[in-house]
């Protein structure tokens, strides 16, 4: 029960407070940093190891190679698309859905 209340306080309450305006939007990154620090301290206090939290180094070399190859292929594809004039001129998008809490 305590874990459920703690999770609610860390993950749901800050979003609700931002949404209703109790926390000003300019402080949203400070809220994110504060909650992250609280969760790190809680995990440390519970005796969680980095490995049990999913931070592993035994597969990092393979993952970096796959990510580098994928990034290189995407970069080449974008350069080719740019050179062939497939990419249109940039326009100012209306991304209002990404600004849900901005007033």
Commentary on this structure:
By secondary structure, the chain is mainly α. It has two domains: 1-53; 56-92. Helix content is 58%, strand content 0%. It has four helices and no strands.
Give the gist of this structure.
The protein has 4 helices and no strands. It has 103 residues and is mainly α.
Comma- or semicolon-separated keywords:
2 domains; single chain
Rg over CA atoms, rounded to whole Å, is 21 Å
Structural class label: mainly alpha
Q: What portion of residues is helical?
A: 55-70%
The tally of domains stands at: 2
The best one-word shape is: flat
Along the chain, the helix and strand elements come as HHHH
Distance between the termini: 36 Å
Q: In DSSP terms, counting alpha (H) and pi (I) runs of 4 or more, how many helices?
A: 4
Low-confidence stretches are: none
Mean pLDDT, all residues? 83
Largest sheet: none
Strand content: under 5%
Tell me how many strands there are. Answer: 0
Q: How do the strands and helices of this protein lay out in sequence?
A:
Blueprint: H1 2-11, H2 13-20, H3 28-45, H4 60-83
């Amino acid at each position: 029960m305590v874990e459920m209340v703690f999770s609610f306080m860390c993950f749901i309450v800050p979003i609700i407070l931002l949404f209703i305006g109790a926390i000003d939007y300019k402080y949203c990154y400070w809220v994110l940093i504060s909650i992250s620090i609280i969760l790190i301290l809680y995990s440390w206090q519970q005796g969680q190891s980095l490995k049990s939290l999913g931070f592993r180094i035994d597969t990092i070399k393979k993952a970096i190679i796959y990510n580098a190859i994928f990034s290189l292929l995407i970069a080449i594809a974008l350069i080719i698309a740019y050179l062939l004039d497939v990419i249109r001129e940039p326009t100012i998008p209306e991304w209002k859905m990404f600004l849900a809490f901005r007033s």
